[in-house]
Predict the structure of tRNA pseudouridine synthase A.
Amino acid sequence: MPRFALKIEYSGAPFYGWQRQKTHSSVQQTVEDALAKMAADDPSLVAAGRTDRGVHATGQVAHCDLKRNWDLFRLSEALNYHLKPWPVAVVDVAKVEDNFSARFSAVERQYLFRIVNRRAPMTFEAGQVWQVSQHLELAPMREAAGHLLGLHDFTTFRSVMCQAKSPVKTLDELRIEEFELPHGREFRFYVRARSFLHNQVRSLVGSLVQVGRGSWSPDDMRLALEACDRSACGPVSPPHGLYLSAVQYEEDPFAKISDTA
């Protein structure tokens, strides 16, 4: 059976996360239902990451096995037709080897967290960013983020429901950028690692906001990390500012072969 990789974009607002559930809508179920309308074998998806309820994605990757050897353009067009009116889109499709796994072949996952710092309520991007009304300072957040880079025991920033065998992870990047807006500022947190613990990014960002608003010092972040105690974590940020932005593989399944030498 041919195996296909799908790059999927979605708003997490109407879903209870990626993973299929018995009683609530999920992104996985929505895409699988669209596939079922095209393939009688009821195909299932394996995803690179199981995003939580309310979390968005611009670069989720999933794979599935189909009996029919679909033309890639027709497959993406048919899927997007059957995904309407859900806020889910297949933005790219590739045929991959049988040993490719969207989850286990991934060598890196990238997340983006967006915060808009302003007093007035959000209108156009409500539900797409975390609005923080208290003033945030970039420099102390960047200093605090430096304590988190590298190999650490991230027990403090790990959900009690996390099923990972070990809390030890390597954080390759935690970069914070500030952008001026007409009526405020936006802070973007770029986070990169091979894999993450459950709620790790939201826990890190929530604690960094404590630093940005002056409730914590940058060194308090180091102490929280070293405590290896969930109670030392700051408030966990809400899900709607978080995006799974990219998944990297040793060979990009979506790389287009150039027609020129």
User: Anything to note?
Assistant: The chain has two domains: 3-104, 107-246. The radius of gyration is 20 Å. Residues 34 and 82 are 5 Å apart (CA to CA).
